């Protein structure tokens, strides 16, 4: 935890090692931190709520830590500089917090092959810079939120192999930069909306 008393530290790269243990709660002291790169280790425990103190944090990559668990802290929504949130191939569980809608600069959210459940919060539609949503291989339920139609920069939407129900929202046709939409292996019903015909850049559906 002593590493967390470096107030000028801007980038922390510890990826691709055999590090064990939890992320220390003192990480909230690294208020200059912009890049937190911890992927492909053997970290365990939950993401501490003190991460919400990191207002300059742009990139979190902690995927590939199979024993990293627990829900995403609500305080993550305070990391308003966040551009990339990468927690794939972990045991992160629970719902996506509604505070994710505070992340106006977020471009990529990648929490696939994890244990997420519950509904996709409509507040995700506030993240208008999102280009990639990778939430496949989870247990997400409920319907695909119509608020995704606000995401005019969205290029890749990967929601396959969840427990999503309901119809495909016609608002998805407003995301005219979409290249790939993969919502297979769910329990969607109804018809394919005609508005998808507006997706002139679409290559895979």
TrEMBL record:
Q: Where in the cell is it found?
A: Cell envelope
**Gene3D superfamilies associated with the record:** Ribonuclease Inhibitor (3.80.10.10)
Instruction: Tell me the ranges covered by the Disease resistance R13L4/SHOC-2-like LRR domain, including all copies.
Output: 76-205
Q: Which domain of life is it from?
A: Eukaryota
**Keyword Repeat on this protein?**
yes
Q: Which Pfam families match?
A: LRR_1, LRR_14
The record's section on InterPro entries has: Leu-rich_rpt (IPR001611), LRR_dom_sf (IPR032675), LRR_R13L4/SHOC2-like (IPR055414), PGIP (IPR051848)
Q: Which UniProt keywords apply?
A: Repeat
* Main localisation: other
Q: Tell whether Repeat is among the UniProt keywords.
A: yes
Mind telling me what this protein is named? Disease resistance R13L4/SHOC-2-like LRR domain-containing protein
Please name the source species. Opuntia streptacantha (Prickly pear cactus)
């Amino acid at each position: 935890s002593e590493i967390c008393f470096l107030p000028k530290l801007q980038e922390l790269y510890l990826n691709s090692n055999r590090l064990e243990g939890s992320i220390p709660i003192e990480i909230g002291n690294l208020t200059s931190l912009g890049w937190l790169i911890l992927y492909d280790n053997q970290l365990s425990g939950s993401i501490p709520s003190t991460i919400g103190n990191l207002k300059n944090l742009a990139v979190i990559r902690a995927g590939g830590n199979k024993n990293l668990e627990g829900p995403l802290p609500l305080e993550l929504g305070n990391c308003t500089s966040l551009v990339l949130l990468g927690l794939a191939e972990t045991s992160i569980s629970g719902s996506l917090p509604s505070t994710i809608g505070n992340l106006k600069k977020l471009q990529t959210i990648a929490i696939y092959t994890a244990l997420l459940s519950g509904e996709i919060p409509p507040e995700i539609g506030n993240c208008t810079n999102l280009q990639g949503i990778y939430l496949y291989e989870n247990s997400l339920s409920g319907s695909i939120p119509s608020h995704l139609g606000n995401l005019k920069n969205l290029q890749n939407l990967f929601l396959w192999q969840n427990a999503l129900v309901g119809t495909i929202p016609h608002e998805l046709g407003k995301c005219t930069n979409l290249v790939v939409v993969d919502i297979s292996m769910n329990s969607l019903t109804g018809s394919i909306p005609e508005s998808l015909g507006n997706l002139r850049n679409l290559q895979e559906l």
